[in-house]
Amino acid sequence: MEKKFLEIAEQYCNVKAEDIKPEMRFIEDLEFSSFDFMAFLGELEDAFDIEVVEEEVLKIKTVGEALSYLEKTAA
Q1: In whole angstroms, how far apart are CA 31 and each of 15, 27, 53?
Q2: Given this model, what pLDDT does residue 75 score?
Q3: Alpha helix locations (H) across 2-62?
Q4: DSSP conformational letter for 25
Q5: What is the pLDDT of residue 74?
Q6: Contacts of range 26-33, beta carbons closer than 8 Å, 24 or more positions apart
Q7: Taking the model in full, what pTM does it have?
Q8: What does residue 34 show for φ and ψ, rounded to 5 degrees?
Q9: For residue 56, which of 48, 66, 46 has the smallest C-alpha distance?
Q10: Per-residue confidence of the chain (75 residues) as pLDDT tens digits?
């Protein structure tokens, strides 16, 4: 799950999947725009067959937080 998540994230930034760390922030460190983040979430929904709750994902700032949310939601 984490590998696929990082491969998807890599498409939206200039950082290779293997260099993305849990403490990295989407906007500040990976330079996601808000549009990138929303598109990224949509791609995660498709890839993992989940539905994200907008109020919850708007609180997500780091890669680690997003992975924890994904693991909880996909379970």
Answers
A1: 10, 5, 23
A2: 75
A3: 2-10, 34-48, 54-57
A4: B
A5: 87
A6: 26/60, 26/61, 26/62, 26/63, 26/66, 27/61, 30/63
A7: 0.90
A8: -65, -35
A9: 66
A10: 999 999 999 999 999 999 999 999 999 999 999 999 999 999 999 999 999 998 999 899 999 999 999 999 987
Residues in CB range of 67: below 8 A, 6 or more apart: 2, 5, 22
Beta bridge partners, 62, equal 25
Question: Two tokens at 41?
Answer: 């979430």
Which contacts (CB < 8 Å, 24+ apart) does range 39-46 have?
Answer: 39/12, 40/8, 40/9, 40/12, 43/8, 43/11, 44/5, 44/8, 44/70
In the block, tokens 């919850």 appear at: 56
- Only one residue has tokens 């989940």, namely 50
User: Two tokens at 32?
Assistant: 């996601």
- The length of the chain is 75
